[in-house]
Amino acid sequence: MQLETEHLILRPWEDGDAEELYRYAKDERVGPAAGWPPHTDVEESREIIRTVFSGPETYAMVLKSTGKPIGCVGVMFFPAGNLSLKDREAEIGYWIGVPYWGQGLTTEAVRRIVKRCFEDLGCEILWCGHYDGNERSRGVQEACGFRYHHTERTEVASLGEIRTEHFYCLTRETFLKSREV
């Protein structure tokens, strides 16, 4: 499956993306903000592509102008994700390399994934979360129509930490109403 936006192609990750993934995933400003440790080498990035990023709704965010991946966006269904999801619910996760922060590209990718979830995957409720202090992620969620729902203390096992996570949701009804405006 390949999806397209104005500036991005969203496509499955490939082994050949490992060097580009490592370029951004080794940065300490990226992974820990999203809940995972920085990558230590290209082989670790390749293994992440083969395991974590191999899911059917996990996409490399590929910049059309370069043809290279710059981040990741994906949809998680129960039991993946940070919430106990019900039937027809999903959680969206994402990250983007630091050189592309503040350009609206993550918002563009998440909007396309939201559309896929509601129009193609039969979702009724979508969830997103961000950890305390990750205001960029909160901004993406709000720009995509997600609204604050609740806050929890959650274990971030990969980092060995307990963090405060703020959860936002978007319903199919709200999504459809926003398209009528």
Report on the structure:
The protein is an alpha+beta fold and 181 residues long. 30% of the residues lie in helices and 31% in strands. The protein contains 6 helices and 8 strands; from the N terminus they run E-E-H-H-H-E-E-E-H-E-H-E-E-H. It has an 8-stranded mixed sheet, with helices on both faces. The mean pLDDT is 94.
Helix content: 25-40%
Largest sheet: 8 strands, mixed
Oligomer: single chain
What structural class do the secondary elements suggest? Answer: alpha+beta
SSE pattern, N- to C-terminal: EEHHHEEEHEHEEH
Cα(first) to Cα(last) distance is 29 Å
Mean of all residue-level pLDDT scores: 94
- Output the number of helix runs: 6
Strand content: 25-35%
Q: Please give the number of β-strands.
A: 8
- Radius of gyration, rounded? 15 Å
Shape: globular
Q: In which order are the strands of the major sheet placed? A: 1-2-3-4-5-6-8-7
Report the uncertain regions.
none
